[in-house]
Amino acid sequence: MAEATFRGTNFAAGGLAHHHNVVVPVPKRRRIHSNDELSRWEPTVAAPSTDPFEDYIPMFFMGEGVSCEDQVIDLVDERSGKRKRYASDDPMSCWRPHAAEFLHELLRHEALGNDHHHPQCTTCARPLSNDASLYKCEDCGTFLLCQECCLERHHALPLHRVMRWTGDFWDKHTSLTELGLVYQVGHGGHACPAPQSTVYSMTVIAPTHICRLKIRYCACSRGDRATHVQQLLREGWYPATVIEPATCATFTALDHFALLTTVATTNVRDFISSLQLSGNALRMIPLAECYRAFGGMSRQWTFLHRMKRAGRAHDERGIAGTRPGEAVVRCWACPQDGVNMPVGWRNDDLQYVHSLFLSMDANFRLKNRFRKNARPDAPLGGGSGCFVESPLYKEHLRGYVNEEDVSSCISFAALMEKDTKNTVGCRVSGCGACSCTRHETLRPNGLGDLQKGERYANMDFIFWSAIKNENVAKVLLTYDIGCQWKKTLWDRLNKLPPLLQPHTDDGRPCLDIEVRLPVWHGNVHDIACRSANSVRYARGAGKPDGEGPERIWASMNTLATATKEMGEGVRDGVIEGWSAHHNLQKNVGQRVGLERRLQLASVQSQQRKEELKDIEDALDTPTLSAWRKMFDDYEGNDQLPNPFLPHVSDEPSEQRVRAQLVRDEADDVRMGRTPVRATAKATFIVLGLQLEESQSHIAAMAQDISIAALDRDRQVQEQRIAWFKRLARYRALQEHFMPAAAAKALADEQSRNSDALPPEAEHVKLWLPSDLTRQEREEGCVEGLGEVEVRLHVAQCTDALKDTRSRLHARRFLVNERNAHGYGQRDSTRSRNVIARLDDRIARLANKYRSARSALLRLSSADAYPAFRELKDNDLVIDDDREADGASTERLNAQGQRSSRVVGTARKTDSTALSARDRAIAVVRGADSRRNLTSWIWTALGGPEEDTEAQVHDAVRVEWAKARARSERWTEEVNILKEEMRRVLRFLQWRADWWDHRALFEAALDPAGRAGVRAYALRQAYLARRLRASFHVTWSSGSGKTALLEGGISDDECSSNT
């Protein structure tokens, strides 16, 4: 292997430099193969670890006399596999004994330290007296310097902070300017043959402080007659103005602030204030006000970096020729025709892997107020990033006419308030966004300001802007009001600017667009709407939850407070800078994220296939064939019967009652019978009940061992965060609707032990009207609030009983089929897992009924609803599941075994001999005339309308349809993730080649400028290839390397060298 020699330099503690040569091998250049070879590549990942701390390497601070056992925080007992915890209530206990030692060492730096007795200059080694002029540089180190060496050392380091020894202490109010330093711009501080005679004062903002110094510009021929602005930029100082600049910021300071803005949400005023107080806490050094200057510089810096990353300096069209959305950091894993999709992808059998998965949502926290004396402030590069093209967008909205509420599912706040949203004093009421739902990146031109709520006119423009010029198999969009938004989507398309209308064939759009409901938001929809539109049941969707925008908003909302008061252009730049950083970090995170998701999907796919097989094994061939035909027909035509829906009864369901209550109050508002409010009584109670139901869901999820640990903790934490956000809105509304409850909630919080951890989401008390006494409801609640909760709880009890009966029938059928036809441990285990899932659902339904009934009893008399009796565990049975005494139970068991053998024999003889009715009745009811005790749940509310066979058939069919959908979605998820990994590798290779081509661009610059343009392009190409190699190695570790070689990828490409 070839070798190269580099010259290295080390600095000793005293500041002396030691030079030496380093010989290192030159890495072998990596060979990158064509995209077609990636089409055969299969990523191989290791099985998911059950230990969440597998990659955790503890680091302990070991002090003298402190044993290792005292430092252990979390260890694993290898014998039992359980975690031993030695968590201490005082994490500072190991350091506290050393506090005095640390303090004394800090004070040691206040004097001469080790040089106290024999001070001397580190550079020239000249002995110095204790009262002589000694200097020390805070940025160079702790060594001593004489005045001459200090000036000589800092000719090229004018921004360093020096201190002078007075004989008693270090005076920090000393500067290099006071020592006579005049920095020569254009020569790195060294002398210029022909400098300008004028000396200028300059304020320079460094990453850690603000420095005032004297400078002199260059006027010699070596400087190529560069202007003052050019000389400052070549020095690495960014001028605040192009006319006689007196304030600059170093490139490092601007980079540092840009990172702080995106990561820590630091604003300009706080950043500058911190620099002004650095070393000047007593404000004894007067500094110029540079807040406005730095704000302008940082805004320009962010814009220029966006342009630089987009390759605008490598294009003859330049910045002015930037196309809409061209400066966005694109998602590496999303399909882009001609970039990361294989040749001939339209002939692929699995077309769904080439779909574009998007989500839409609105965020009303990103408001922007009118400014009284606002000046015109157009954004820099408007429309080139995530924001839509502002002039075209505003022109489109001028023709907007108020839309009518077209909701036929349930009254959503987004629909009800889109024309009544309070926008007083606001230029912008929020933001609408279209983002990648699988990878949570913002789309090009996928972000737009909302003026008056979440109107179709705004969201239509944002959506079509975000998918403009896309060439994919299908666009699958999730939107929380998608069931209504999609109804007239194609009709509204004609109202958009022609530039946004996709190419059409025979007058119809060529794009295949499917709109679905996200998982979490979909739960508030009517059951018929939810089952027809849920992304869980969409063929080719994989397993996205469709809630990506919520996670984006959770991060972006940290900007809300700052951007609310900004001007239009400043706000645009801040959000664009944040979006670029966000997208880049999401892309880089795919190296680990896609691998972990593939691990989880591989396990889940196998488990769901076994679950489906277990259910199908219990069905006869004619029934299964009929259900499969029903399932396939429905996926081809959603107007046909829905296999995910049970028989629809006329009983009032919870969803229907909710919708009716909200519609009634909406009618009252429209007719002027009720004052307009942002939220009505019914909506407030519905929100409380949803929060209550979410608490049960979170508690069940936290205990669900069927979910992989690495995914369960993440899901639970996300659910808790989302729950607390909704709780904040509920508490705010509670102060109006239930002041008595709000006071109790506040008292509970004040009485809580401040040293104890706050309760988790599932343990927070909500204080609904049913939690108050009658007197408290009458005196401290809005009139009629309790009646609204009663109606909803009645519907909850009705739904819970109906769903419980359906689940019990399905469970009984599966249990008896397992007993009759299950053989071996494998079949038994699969059956047990399926039945356990049903048991969990039955238990949750029972808890929901008990909670609703308990609330009803508190809100009304005990005999007001006699049909809703106390539900005990032994009531959760079908009528023949129990006998009057133990003897009859034994006879039932014996008879059940004989019936099972009879049915089993019949099935072996002729699989079609017994119909679904015969098999269900033979096993469920039994053949003898035994006397049974009937549970009251089968006669409540008049009892079920269908006979046992119909109930069993209906219940099992719904469970089978859901099991098949789960199995198909997880299988699709595996295939989609593998293709996404290939797309990431293709994108990075394409990006490297793209930058290689840009390196050939001949810019109209001087030789040094052209060299910089070329160097940047080559560095970006190098980084893209290194990223690709890193991703490739991560996804091809271990046994995966053999699979790669078989797939046509060379051994060099599996190497980490680049």
Keywords:
disordered C terminus; globular; 1058 residues; 5-stranded mixed β-sheet; alpha+beta; 45% helix; 21 strands; single chain
Main sheet properties: 5 strands, mixed
SS elements, strand count: 21
Oligomeric nature of the chains: single chain
What percentage of residues falls in helices of 4 or more residues?
40-55%
The average pLDDT is: 78
Helix segment tally = 32
Strand content: 5-15%
The global form is globular
In terms of per-residue confidence, which ranges show pLDDT below 50 for 5 or more consecutive residues? 29-34, 50-84, 879-933, 943-947, 1038-1058
Give the CA-CA distance, first to last residue.
14 Å
Spatially, the strands of the biggest sheet line up as: 8-10-9-12-11
Radius of gyration: 35 Å
* Tally of discrete structural domains: 4
What structural category characterises the helix and strand content? alpha+beta
Protein name: CxC2-like cysteine cluster KDZ transposase-associated domain-containing protein
Organism: Schizophyllum commune (strain H4-8 / FGSC 9210) (Split gill fungus)
Pfam family, one: CxC2
